[in-house]
Design goal:
alpha+beta, four-stranded antiparallel β-sheet, 4 helices, 4 strands, elongated
């Protein structure tokens, strides 16, 4: 039985924490919370009391937990919580990139996009942080 999932995710220059837990057989609920700086921005609670007697309950609950956790990640990345997190939709600045955003031309051609099931091979050249790569990987629907 999986007790829960926890991920810290960098989004728009801020760290968000997503936590999904199973309350157990006696209280059959899956709860997912989205935090920023210790403050809960969003929550989702799903009951599975209606399926408590199925034979493969542990497997089904684990899949439900994964989906609910990934849905919260997707919603965060889609900007659904921007107003609560930053005060207004898309009003907060993007991660600071310095005064000049132009970069010198690359000495080599860029790598082709990664396949849907693999993160970029070279994070330094991809321009994404490890958190962004993990978030993209999870949002695409891969297993945790």
């Amino acid at each position: 039985m999986v007790v829960g999932f926890n991920h810290n995710v960098m989004y728009r220059g801020e760290v968000f924490h997503i936590q999904t837990e199973d309350s157990g057989f006696n209280n059959p609920h899956i709860i997912t919370l989205l935090y920023r700086g210790g403050t809960i921005l969003a929550s989702k609670k799903t009951s599975y009391a209606d399926i408590i007697k199925i034979e493969n309950l542990d497997q089904v609950v684990e899949e439900l937990m994964k989906e609910q956790h990934k849905d919260m990640l997707r919603s965060l990345k889609a900007g659904q919580f921007d107003e609560r997190a930053f005060g207004s939709p898309r009003s907060a600045p993007s991660p600071v990139q310095g005064p000049a955003e132009s970069k010198p031309p690359a000495a080599h051609p860029p790598d082709p996009p990664p396949s849907p099931r693999q993160p970029p091979r070279d994070l330094a050249r991809s321009g994404q942080s490890l958190d962004e790569v993990i978030l993209d990987y999870l949002v695409r629907g891969e297993d945790l």
